[in-house]
Amino acid sequence: MKKLKLLVLAVLPIPAFFFSLVIGQFDIPPLTVYEIFFTKLFNPLISSPWPPAYEVVVWNIRLPRVLLALLVGASLSVSGTALQGLFRNPLVSPYILGLSWGANFGVALSLLIPLPFSPQFMAFSFGLLAVFLAYSIAKVRGETPVISLVLAGVIVSAFFTALQYIAKFFLDPQALQGLVYWMMGGFYLAHWDDVMVTCIPIIFSVVMLSLMSWRINVLSMGDAEAKMMGLNTELNKVVIIVLATVMAAVAVSVVGTIGWVGLIIPHLVRMAVGPDHRKLIPLSATVGAAFLLVADDLARSITTYELPVGILTTLSGVPFFVYLLKKTKGRSWS
Amino acid sequence: MIVAREVKFSYEKLLVLKGIDVDVVRGEVATLLGPNGSGKTTLLMCLCAILKPLTGCVYVNGREITKIKRGELAKMLGHVPQGHRPPFPYTVIDVVVMGRAPYIGAFSMPSKRDFEIAEKALEIVGIRHLKDRVYTQISGGEMQLVLIARALAQQPQVLLLDEPTAHLDFKNKILVLKVVKNLAKKENLAVIMSLHDPNLAAMFSDKVYLIADGVIVDRGEPSKVITRENLKRVYGIDVNVIEHEGTRFVVPVLE
Ligand SMILES: Nc1ncnc2c1ncn2[C@@H]1O[C@H](COP(=O)(O)OP(=O)(O)O)[C@@H](O)[C@H]1O
Ligand SMILES: [Mg+2]
């Protein structure tokens, strides 16, 4: 029974994937969709018996979007799980160290002044910059206590929020709207290039954090205890923060700041399989991937006008957390 | 086995340890006895290199502790913390197997053998039956035993325990201290623990360090150290020391 549950959670992205491929405004019979997908996958050179438009929709519009949603969902969830474990705190998300506000400001800046860098690159660099600043502020005498990190994250977020408001003040209305869209996060512009750029860092980080998952168990006992059990806590912390940040920054840079996924999924999976990070990290990847993909399916199909998926994840996240808060009476771990 | 020489330590400007010497060999239980705030926790932290002394040295197995890498030290020395806030609801066996960390690479998982060693450690402290229970849902005494088992899973030669009896009821105090004393003999460990009850110290230690205000006031066999004069000096209260069937009891005088 327990094994079955693990298995189901592990393979969740597969049905989600095939389900999502057939969803879309453009009407294509499901069987044709799968035929196109498998033919292109295994015999890309075969001449197509179906209308070329079908192929473009399935292969160049839906497939990259579906893959990107899987990657980003896995990325934000694993990042959140690793950081919650490291920080021993259930309210930690990938954005705790200022990543999202740094990235927002990066995009605002790129809209404001013409720079030789893409908005994606600016989001990525300023996201990393924000986390680096938070880490440096938190570091006292070679140590970074968790509480200092959290406070430093608040400080850095506030700083970049302020900068972003200044930038916004000078933006023209159209650019401003672009920024707002970006901040809500979504996949409407998903492209094969985005999949290519994100897949390597995200898969690499998921694999590395899965390999380090047992270490995260030990680190979650707190600095002093982890040290007594022989760990170089600072080094471990830096490696985990770097992996968790880079993977989330990559995701944020291509799809914007999608909220709450990195907060909800770690909780959900922990509720389902317990706190052992050896299971938690890999299953956060699969459940997070499936979750964001289905959320995106909803985003692009519940209304004729496409919703930013970030709005859906936030709307589903809020009641979930209210429930969690009531159920655990504020002491929320298990 | 574990030796401290002239250890001084200060938090910012407050000198908390004022030149402390400790010598404990394997098979021996040494107790740091002293009132709250006398520096017991600080001394234990210095003995396991979590805190770095201002001056003075700590030696483990004849080697200076600052020259030993963390990972290697964790194989020689286990520490059972005092203020322990359980984080996630791990199972007992998952907590104990964490003691194997110094033997497991950064990108590896505990092996079957590591789990066997962890189970053995649970058996030694007598709580193998709790193996699959949730760590956050067991009693305080059981939790203390789990943490001792975790330290044992490190397969150390030195065991440090910070107030292992704090917050425990009468029965659990005795149970935990019996386990500790047994470990010293059977597993041939050098044990240093802190207590603030002179009766328990007398019952379970081979050697007592009476500590007050960062200074070792007296040291030696319990019968020599736990005396009216010494306790008056350290705790500032009058006591009678009663001897009953070879065991000494300290009873406060209530005029
Ligand atoms: N982190 C700290 N910063 C400043 N002073 C401390 C700190 N920890 C302990 N102290 C002070 O050091 C003294 C010794 O404390 P401690 O070693 O905890 O004593 P004990 O364990 O014997 O109760 C006390 O006066 C205490 O107030
Ligand atoms: Mg203390």
Secondary structure: number of strands of chain B: 12
Largest sheet of chain A: none
User: Quick one: which chains have the greatest interface?
Assistant: A-B, 30 and 33 residues
CATH fold description of the largest domain in chain B: Rossmann fold
Annotation field: number of helices of chain B: 9
The value of Rg of chain B in angstroms is 18 Å
Largest sheet properties of chain B: 6 strands, mixed
Give the amount of beta strand of chain A, in percent: under 5%
Tell me which ligands are bound: adenosine-5'-diphosphate, magnesium ion
In total, how many beta strands of chain A?
0
Topology pattern of chain B, helix = H, strand = E = EEEHEEHEHHHEHEHEEHHEE
Count of the domains of chain B: 2
Give the N-to-C terminal Cα separation of chain A.
Answer: 20 Å
Mean pLDDT of chain A: 91
Give the class of chain B from helix and strand content and strand pairing. Answer: alpha/beta
State the helix count of chain A. 15
User: Which stretches of chain B are low in confidence, meaning pLDDT under 50 for 5 or more residues running?
Assistant: none
Q: Per the principal axes of the C-alpha atoms, what is the gross shape of chain B?
A: globular
What share of residues are in beta strands of chain B? 25-35%
Structural notes for this entry:
- The complex is a heterodimer of chains A (334) and B (255).
- Chain A has 334 residues and is an all-alpha fold.
- Chain A has 15 helices and no strands.
- Chain A has one domain (29-328): ABC transporter involved in vitamin B12 uptake, BtuC.
- In chain A, helix 1 (2-11) packs across helix 14 (277-301) and helix 5 (99-112) runs parallel beside helix 7 (146-170).
- The longest helix of chain A is centred in the first third of the chain and has 36 residues, at 52-87.
- The two termini of chain A are 20 Å apart.
- The model of chain A has no long low-confidence stretch (mean pLDDT 91).
- Chain B is of the alpha/beta class and 255 residues long.
- Chain B has two domains: 1-73 and 156-255, P-loop containing nucleotide triphosphate hydrolases (Rossmann fold, 3-Layer(aba) Sandwich); 77-155, no CATH class.
- Chain B has nine helices and twelve strands.
- In chain B, the strands form three sheets. Chain B has a six-stranded mixed beta sheet, with helices on both faces. In chain B, strands 2-1-4-5 form a four-stranded antiparallel beta sheet, covered by helices on one side. Chain B has a two-stranded antiparallel sheet with strand order 11-12.
- In chain B, strand 7 (158-161), helix 6 and strand 8 (190-195) form a beta-alpha-beta unit.
- Chain B is globular and about 60 Å long.
- Chains A and B meet through helix 10 and helix 11 of A and helix 2 of B.
- The complex binds adenosine-5'-diphosphate (ADP) and magnesium ion (MG).
- The site of adenosine-5'-diphosphate has 11 residues of chain B, from strand 2 and helix 1.
